[in-house]
Amino acid sequence: MHxxxxxxxxxxxxxxxxxxxxLELFNQAxxxxxxxxxxxxxxxxxxxxxxxxxxxxxxxxxxxxxxNASHTWRAxxxxxxxxxxxxxxxxxxGSNTRVWEDPWIPSNLGFKPLLRLQNxxxxxxxxxxxxxxxxxxxxxxxxxxLPIDAAAVQMIPLGRMEEDNWAWHLERSGxxxxxxxxxxxxxxxxxxxxxxxxxxxxxxxxxxxxKMPVPPKVRNFWWRVIRKFIPCRSILKERHIEQISFCxxxxxxxxxxxxxxxxxxxxxxxxxxxxxxxxxxxxxxPDSWAMDMIDGGMVSDTDAAVILCGCWSVWSERNAKKHGxxxxxxxxxxxxxxxxxxxxxxxxxxGKKMPIKADDKWRPLEINCIKLNVDASFLADCLQGSxxxxxxxxxxxxxxxxxxWYEHAANFFVMEALAIRDGVRxxxxxxxxxxxxxxxxxxxxxxxxxxxxxxxxxxxxxxETKELSESFQFFVLSYVPRKANELAHLCARQANPHRKxxxxxxxxxxxxEACLYKDCNSLS
Length: 524
Description:
alpha/beta, Nucleotidyltransferase, domain 5, 3 domains, 6-stranded mixed β-sheet, globular
């Protein structure tokens, strides 16, 4: 008997599936890796041979499958479909990116302009860039794009990259990964099959179920209870497998709730549980009782763990009796439920070790060096943001502070990168030679240390930062927790559409006094 379609079972656990791999999609994602190599390693022998045979006059993304193509090429073309979920062009000079055909706008659906106006005259992205200042030409954007598309284009940072290149938008590094491609295809399939099944509350519920302090077999069992995949007689009759739906022990209709709570053996079991552990079965809604048991609003987590283990024990004894086995006595089942539940609850509490925290206090430098703290602020509702920089010497004295406003901001990740660049720019303008830049953006710090950010969304920003850093005798970019970066955070909040640039030179403004006082007193 098939309880559920495989594609539903293969859905992630956080959306109600069992988390099994969909081998068809996973195979397609692995084949997409070969297509990615053809795009990004065009000088390799394999790429040159395949290009010369199958798409010598076009690019890979527009190539077609030849009539007598080999199985290898057909497989690569099949994997190419997976690349459409995250493939995007990173803009350098815009010379080889087509405005209307290529994916290049990160914030747009499909990474392309939403609509082409009839009077549009531009064809290549380089036509949108002002050759004098290297920034987007606002007049051309307003004349050729919808306002929403023009704003999306202006969010793309421009820098000193020489040429456009392909990137994978689903990874912050910009490099393709089979994992992200598989997840993107799986999410697209779920959205197609169940467009209204992505509520955040459901995800919270399923995550809570799979983290319950009970054995894995009990979690799997309760997932089946919620999905009504329990072969009791009433369900088997609905599926035309059993002729009758009555319980063999008491003669009542054998539903899931009857098997677990209302049958003769089950009643005796729960009576013993109440006497030993003090856990009483709650009164829940007959339609949603299985989910309410996990939700936490009506049953505590400890009681829920006991009830789930108890239900699994009751169902196991019911099956053992049905198949002719002797099974365990009620006392043994109650003891097993109590021991397992208490052991797992205690071990789960002991296993929650406190994370090792980095030093959350600002620390001065022991060497004759300048420390810059940088941070960003991002307003998601209006897609605007600001950056803040605080410059202090090795004794902790504030030398300069700055805040800049950005009218167009793509996301928090880009704004944090811009904050780092603005800080390095400021240090260069001040004529500093030895600097340490501290940021609370851990992802950017890791990406910077890899020195492999050429395909990242912030590649042009980090590339400019790298070029600026080469002018210093000593330069370090390091991560600090938010509490140690409060000065820059406060500065970033000062910029707004009416005050686009704020600078404080050898002056402590009122909003910085408490922060500087705290940092100085934390040193003792």
